[in-house]
Amino acid sequence: MTLLAVGHGSRDPRALAATRALVRLVRSMRPELDIRLCFLDHAEPSLSRTLAQLDGPRPVVVPLLLSTGYHVKVDLAATGLPLARALGPHPLLAEALAHRLAEAGAPSHAPVVLAGAGSSDPAARADTARTADLLAARLGRPVTPAYLSGHGPTPHQALAAHRAAAHPETALATYLLAPGHFARRAADTPATWTSAPLGAHPALARLVLHRYDEARARALLPAAA
Fold this sequence. Notes:
- With 225 residues, the chain is of the alpha/beta class.
- It has eight helices and seven strands, in the order βαβαβααβαβαβαβα.
- The chain has a four-stranded parallel sheet with strand order 5-4-6-7, with helices on both faces. A three-stranded parallel sheet has the order 2-1-3.
């Protein structure tokens, strides 16, 4: 089978470069696997064009998306192809987030705010909150979920709550795949330490392959299973 990685897409060339770097890392981990990349919007190749050009066995679609929102439940489900789950939540994301925080210099005592893109979909928000729980378990301290769009709390509000609770130094974990609009908003918060987007992190690459393996196993099950 083919692993068809589907990114959100962006007009920001840095976001596209980060997504392509992640897919290159995935390929390096499993060079025998046919891995393609396409985008839902704002970038080429598009999903529709890529599907039209594919031949052979049906690909497994792996969303390069951190939560189960509209794109997974509607756009990608409409392809009728074997569809992997969104990347999050998963302990491998907590591993990558913890590493990015350490790279940013965040100390082990600092309270953490997890800044996700946000969504009007309750399922997507729940996915972000679950990732905050997984990161808290890995770090051994509380992690507050926050959202850069949609319903709050916003990262600014979450950070202000920590300051009001006598925690003047707070770390912000950027729960985004790549640079771009939301990453700039995360960087503009008054956190003492702000991690970089996840990018081409080895744990994230392993998670892409894990989601592919899960979906492929489901696709090969007998219809009555």
